[in-house]
Amino acid sequence: MDTSTLAIEVNGISKSYGTVKALDHVSLEVQRGEIFGLIGPDGAGKTSLFKILVTLLNADEGNAKVDGLEVAADYRKVRSRVGYMPGKFSLYPDLTIEENMEFFATLFGVTVEQNYDLVAPIYKQIEPFKKRRAGRLSGGMKQKLALSCALIHKPSVLFLDEPTTGVDAVSRSEFWDMLHNLREQGLSILVSTPYMDEASRCDRIALCNTGRILDIDSPQHMVEKFDGKLYAIKARDMYGLLKDLRDNSSIANCYTAGEYHHLLASADFDAQAIEHHLAELGHEDLEIKPIAPDIEDVFIKLLSNEQ
Amino acid sequence: MSTLKVLLKKEVLQFKRNLFLPKLVVVFPIMIMLIIPWVTTMDVRHVNVSVVDNDHSQLSQRIINKINASEYLTLHSVTGSFDLSFNSLEHGDVDAILEIPQDFEKGFVTGSTKKLSISANSVNATKGSLGLQYLAQTLATSIKEMRASHSPTQAGDLVVIQNRYNPTLEYRNFMIPALLVMLLIIVTGFLPALNFVGEKEIGTIEQINVTPVNRFTFTLAKLIVYWVAGFLVITIGMLVAWLVYGLTPVGNILAIYTISMLFILVISGFGLIASNLSSTMQQAVFFMFFFVMVFILMSGLLTPIESMPQWAQYFTYILPPRYFISTIRAVYLKGATFYDMRYNYYALAAFAVVMNLGASLTYRKQS
């Protein structure tokens, strides 16, 4: 594949903080015009990878290219081609919306008017409050301002580190709609999130944990690949149920998942036998049903395969 | 709009919108200059003296009157026994006890060797030793006058003392130039350091670091604001010194501004190093504090360098404020010219280069 068609190319990147290995030989490729999701819990190394790709951090090992440019060698050029929205709100709280926008535009050598079309769908939502200081905005508005500032110089690759953390469900959904809009305009987007349910909004995802990538694929394909039978089960005493299921040898894995427990069947699993066995143990209101896996189930399965 | 211009605009906006900084720059120098010169004084006044008069003679009466008339000494009591006076000393009401022995005047006339004794409370060493000196001086004058009345042919004082450059021997005049130095350390050293670390703490520096903005321009924009603030502070300080204490520089005011500018460059560079090496405000403050303590206590700000042990005097050569303090005092009080103090100017210029070089070497956009 011609490298110029890749928005991001990561080859065997490693990074340690003292004895803690934040990234362990991570490799991935992001196509142009793709929304690529890094999905993983806290401590998976998502932020470290972002910082390396936007030239804020030097990797110990490996190399990476963004928009065809080496991040280590061509860091100056890379900076003007990427838009970065850190996990923590990091615009000037004592400057107004308007002043922040103008400030970052000028630093990149552009004007707000020049790239207004690109930011307009997002910026228009906060424009009525443009005289308000950034520190006094609500969480959702801060997020929109941060995205506008990251877009103002028309970057070719957008890096969004946990953009939806701490944002309400409606705003989160709106935010993903905005990202899809941006993709239509040709932007490549690398986005990280600890929320498994947001994975389905990405074109492709990488599931990662403790500095390693477990799998890379499209969310649909990842779910389809899931080999194994999955059941949802509930009873009146959920905690006792979990303990009893974990003692059972015909169950590969059992974990809590909201209202139900999910259980992954082993080869010799028999749903009726289990139900009977549990009733004997005194569980009441038992309900067991086969279900289709979601990304979270995939993640947990990959994790238990690793261990 | 150029990058520097937009960065400057941002710094000025932030400075103005800060609830505390604009007030600090104006109110702080006024407060310091109004209060500190009055309260930090090495001049010892009102030394309370208790006299144990066992003589009850003309001479002892003369001594008591002399003490009573002195502006440095206050007559607390005249008692008949040392124990009584010592009791007051132990209570802290009395700083020194003068005991006049029996037949002192008689012995004085006949030439025998009756001695006066002085006991002073020297917990506060300065007050104790100065109080003793004042008391001894007063006694000497009384005795001299007594002698003069016995043999009128004797001439008056043989020694004439003149205090050049600080004729009233006011500690205040020694302090005021030093206070200007202290103000600059805080406004142009501490504030930029805190500003930089502040950007690290709230994370804005990350957003800046992914822009193509040059680190030199970014730093310069911040420093310009504090340099201007520094000049404002020193101007306010000098105005207060003139309006309130009537102290104006004997030397050229430009010489003061020039040395101040060099010092501002040094101390703001030092603040930058502190902020580069710290990741939180707390760290930066303690880093600065450690050095500023040494600067203030060892650079001749409060106590003269000449009274330090020899090794410490050598050590002061590596402290930038030393050059600033001695120059500003010399220009203010003695009217020294740039040429007289040129080595101090050169030294500070060299420090400015070193500090700012250090600041740019410790600055990293990447980690």
Short description:
With 307 residues, chain A is α/β, with parallel strands linked by helices.
Low-confidence stretches of chain A: none
Helix share, percent of chain A: 25-40%
Q: Number of DSSP helices of chain B?
A: 14
What is the subunit organization of this protein? heterodimer
Structural class of chain A: alpha/beta
CATH class label of the largest domain in chain A: Alpha Beta
What is the radius of gyration of chain A computed over CA atoms, rounded to a whole number of angstroms?
23 Å
Strand content of chain B: 5-15%
Itemize the secondary structure elements and their pairings:
The complex is a heterodimer of chains A (307) and B (367).
Chain A: E1 6-17, E2 20-31, E3 35-39, H1 46-53, E4 61-66, E5 69-70, H2 75-81, E6 82-85, H3 97-107, H4 116-126, H5 139-151, E7 157-160, H6 169-184, E8 188-193, E9 204-209, E10 212-217, H7 219-224, E11 230-234, H8 238-247, E12 251-257, E13 260-265, H9 271-280, E14 287-290, H10 295-306
Parallel strand pairs in A: 3-8, 3-9, 6-7, 7-8
Antiparallel strand pairs in A: 1-2, 1-4, 4-5, 9-10, 11-13, 11-14, 12-13
Helix pairs in contact in A: 3-5, 4-5
Chain B: H1 3-17, H2 21-39, E1 47-53, H3 58-69, E2 73-79, H4 82-91, E3 96-100, H5 104-110, E4 117-120, H6 125-150, H7 171-202, H8 204-209, H9 215-245, H10 253-277, H11 281-298, H12 310-315, H13 320-334, H14 342-362
Parallel strand pairs in B: 1-2, 1-3
Antiparallel strand pairs in B: 3-4
